[in-house]
Fold each of these.
Amino acid sequence: MTKVIDVELRGIMKKFQSNVVVQDFNLQVEQGEFIAFLGPSGCGKTTTLNMIAGFLDPDGGDLLIKGQRMNRVPPYKRELGMVFQTYSLFPHMTVAENIAYGLKLRKVGKKEMQERVKRVLDLVKLPNVADRYPKQLSGGQRQRIAIARALVIEPSLLLLDEPLSNLDAKLRDELRDELKRLHQEIGVTTIFVTHDQEEALALSDRIVVLNHGFVEQIGTPLEIYNQPASEFVHTFIGKTNRMEGEVIGMDDNQITVRTTGGLLVQAAKQQRTFSPQQKVIVFVRPEKITLSDTVADTGANRVEGHLQLASFLGSYTECEVRVGEHTLSVKVQMTDKSAEREAGEAVYCQWNAEDVLIMPAERG
Ligand SMILES: Nc1ncnc2c1ncn2[C@@H]1O[C@H](COP(=O)(O)OP(=O)(O)OP(=O)(O)O)[C@@H](O)[C@H]1O
Ligand SMILES: [Mg+2]
């Protein structure tokens, strides 16, 4: 099957005055794909999205949509739907008028317009609000209307700039699931901007991780999570324990690292290759570490420590364990009886060699 490329960025660069904010951005978005741009505030997500939308012109490189060079083509000629971070509904128009706006511009007939407005309202599960004004809706409902308005023109590309970030946690989760369902249903090629790693992991076919205007990594959620290209990617995508150390032993299957705090950490074979005495950084995710009262004979890594802090967070307990000079963060699921621990106890931490990630200490 030949893949159809809907959007292509070739070495895109953008600067404001002398300040380069997006650099050498290369990406091919396949038809039907859901792509997330993920990165901290100011890393260039909105700027890149606005170049794809046509609100900004790139200062270098080429932007292609469906194979056509689009560098200076205005937004209205790009057939795209866009949802902005802040509610972008017209306050003086009803929901139906808001949604129909883009259809009016396109001179769609009245009957078809009514049908299409009804169809997208059903799609976002708000069939009964057509006659209300935006101020008569909740924040989550408004964002769903903004999504409906973007979808009604049947765009070939849907661009979403942090559409969920103004909502409270529960609503955000609900709307996130709904976005996923919508995408499964209509399959429109989507680029979604977020600084929330969970949103990116949950929704995307692939994630583009951005840092200071640079693409750090492009990959599936699993690749980004399990095979991070850099320390930045690994630490941005979730909580982790970080220890500095040195490679003191290796064979075909395992690498042994002695941390600066004197811990010996066994790691399974890595994607990268390392050499003896190399300075490295060792990472273990908090959810990969288990706590027990006795030394069990499972897990390649077993260390004794003292529980310093236990914060009950509902479905899990977040623990801090002092191990020599290191403080390890451990996430204990509620299904585990050790979730009921209290600070001050002596505990053993253990984790598997397969769950240890090693990176070279110096970048490159
Ligand atoms: N019109 C502008 N003029 C000058 N600098 C700008 C302009 N727009 C954005 N910038 C700068 O470009 C950089 C990238 O901004 P951008 O809005 O793309 O970030 P972002 O990744 O979307 O961040 P956030 O998560 O906070 O929305 C920032 O340093 C910002 O200050
Ligand atoms: Mg932004």
Amino acid sequence: MLTLYTFPTPNGHKASILLEELGLSYKVHKLDLMAGEHKKPDYLAISPIGKIPAVVEELPGGVKRKLFGSGAILLHFAERTGRLMPQGVEARADALSWLMLGISDLGPTAVDMFRFSVRAPEKIPYAIDLFKGELIRCYDAMEGRLAEREYLADEYSIADIACFPFIAVAAVANAALLERYPNIKRWHDTLSARPAVQRGMAVPE
Ligand SMILES: N[C@@H](CCC(=O)N[C@@H](CS)C(=O)NCC(=O)O)C(=O)O
């Protein structure tokens, strides 16, 4: 049995889209971040940093395999199933670069932009301009890439799944965004039409 610990945020949606795409059966444990459930000892034993998403897999013999962080979850299940990751060395190297853009550039930058432009009690123009500029670098890189090909890697892969939820949430917050990036829009619309993406974006209920 596989349990996904999550909350309706882009990082959580990466994991649920992945599990839906792979058709794996899983149980959803929604953590109440507002109530601080992610900081309780039981959950810190799964995700020592106290963030969602995390996955626990119960293996034969009572062994529990724990994974935390969207990047680890995406890579682990892609490697284990041999799916959602191009197989050739060159294509895989390419896919890894775009996977990591999603995990270590787009995601953290989008979160910091939200923190400084929406959450911060005091608006600091330097921080807002910095993260806006960093987000534009991510969007520009994706736009250039998607002008050349349908997906971020040679085929639909975990690189797309790593980036999609942050683009989807930005498109809702800023309706004009996708008008400025026609290739990201085309890619966003293609992914949005995938039934597994739709199911994953609806987790947890
Ligand atoms: N590097 C992690 C980041 C995960 C993350 O930031 N999760 C957020 C929700 S989107 C969270 O759990 N925040 C709670 C907190 O920071 O206390 C990943 O890629 O999964």
Amino acid sequence: MFDYQAPDNLLNDRIILVTGAGAGIGRAAAKAFAAKGATVILAGRTVAKLEEVYDEIEEDGGPQPAIFPLNMEGASAHDYENLAATLEKEFGRLDGLLNNAGILGVRTPIESYDPSIWDQVIQVNLNAQFYLTQAMIPLLRQAEEASIVFTSSGVGRTGKAYWGAYAVSKFAIEGLTQVLADELENTSNIRVNAINPGATRTNMRANAYPAEDPNRLATVEAIMPAYLYLMGPDGRGTHGQSIDAQG
Ligand SMILES: NC(=O)c1ccc[n+]([C@@H]2O[C@H](COP(=O)([O-])OP(=O)(O)OC[C@H]3O[C@@H](n4cnc5c(N)ncnc54)[C@H](OP(=O)(O)O)[C@@H]3O)[C@@H](O)[C@H]2O)c1
């Protein structure tokens, strides 16, 4: 596991946006960031799940979070502009962006991959990540130091049979991380990195490997040190990297 012990006040006064905050890794990250002092903006498509996370953060005594309903499959540039305008008005800046939401699509050979599912996966896992990140850059520039974290995968580094659009979208995320990091190198307060969570006990993993025993997998909580490291000031100096949460 990534070896990092975060201090309790690591993210005090930071404003951090987490996509896919209602379930799985995004839910754990939102709660971990709040537990370290961050005001978390919970973005996702199922409001009831976001409300549960909101309540859990409040019960744990974390800073009051905010909810922004966002379906990244159908969202237009206008929706991302709306989000940026709301955040500008409410907070005036953004200190962190965790691009976490994603979908698996189907596991099937390229030869028989349904083009409509291909489009859906590329829309959510790649295009929407670009739209959102682009819209957030002006707000991230307002922070003293800011961190963008993209979510990669092992199949985004080495292609594997039947992973189709999911693998291709994650290769593209690795590329987007490198391109944006290079553009912002030495010219900005924003660092850009990706995390490969590794096999983690979530619904997505269970859908990909239905026969697997989930108890043998890392929990979402166990992989949080890497997320906290990249989001907080100890991650200064890490830029343009793709790190393994279970490395
Ligand atoms: N788990 C693993 O082993 C593993 C390994 C490598 C990489 N990853 C990556 O880690 C990230 C999180 O995955 P996970 O395992 O936590 O998956 P998950 O449990 O399926 O959670 C995915 C999250 O993304 C949200 N989401 C899906 N489609 C969306 C849309 N159209 N608009 C907005 N939000 C949407 C989901 O919202 P709803 O709950 O409302 O559906 C959910 O909150 C993904 O990028 C995944 O590719 C996971």
